[in-house]
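queue> holo job accepted (iron/sulfur cluster)
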Amino acid sequence: MRYLEIANNEKPARFLILKSIPIETLDLELEELIKIHDKLLSRINFESYSLEDISFVEPNLLDLKIKIAEEYYRNCCFCEHRCYINREKERGFCRIKESYYATEFLHYGEEKILIPSHTIFFCGCNFKCVFCQNWDISQVYFNPKIKNRCLKYDEKKMAKIIEFRRVLSKNVNFVGGEPTPHLLSILKTLKYTNVNIPVVWNSNMYLTLEALNLLDGVVDLYLTDFKFGNNECAERLSKIRNYFDIVSRNHSLLDVDVIVRHLVMPNHLYCCTERIFKFLSKFDFYVNVMFQYRPEYLAIYYKDINRTLTYEEMREALELAEKYKLKLI
Ligand code: SF4
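queue> job finished
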């Protein structure tokens, strides 16, 4: 995995390579900026770069991504809700304007190859999962009574924290809530981050192609959360349209290291777990089958998911993983 080579400081992180690629001007229309972005990105052979090749210039390809993200932020199309609102003034489906975060720390509870992982928990989410286990930071953080649960996000300060924690951390892990609505803040953070560290995008993967394009050349490892095997379960339990179509499309486009997490849910083995495993069998991804589901938040109102898993369900899920020859992690 290239991810491990970056974590061990044998290869440069992709975002550092972007900061070594000069841009003539950022003073162009959005369409022109995107054209230049796509052209330059398609020419980069990330594999050929060594740490010695990294030499920062300004403005650079990461600055260009930030400029494009600023345009998208004012007409928000970061995720497939496609609210097209100006986030400087309004809130869309996710109700997020500027970025807040709940906490950041060295996480020892992630997959073995990730720990210790410097995990940054952003507030707010573009999903409304009725079983959310982090509902206090993902769903209701904007409630004035509990607003102090979240802290104002400062890109420069966070970059310093990332550099400081790199002494022990193997990666920086952007999560939430959901990182997608915070894409602009995350790109800006990396602009100010000057250590070699793999970038982990820990996400529900309901991004638009525009957002995925901005993450191309930034993310070193996608840590994805694949919840539902069909659109209907997603609409009922997470209030999301076209979930499977979008999330499966996005997985098909990933060409860096990927770990897929699937949280097995009670009574959803054949409508969700099996369909996801069947889809994943076409790819060379690592898969983490997770059994820690517990009914939280509003799950009490949904009979099918208002309990923990049975041993029989856990056994069946593992048999399905074996049936589809998944590379379990
Ligand atoms: S991130 Fe998604 S949900 Fe939030 S405003 Fe943008 S398009 Fe809407």
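queue> The pocket of iron/sulfur cluster is lined by residues 76-79, 81-83, 85, 92-94, 96, 126, 180-181 (CB under 6 Å).
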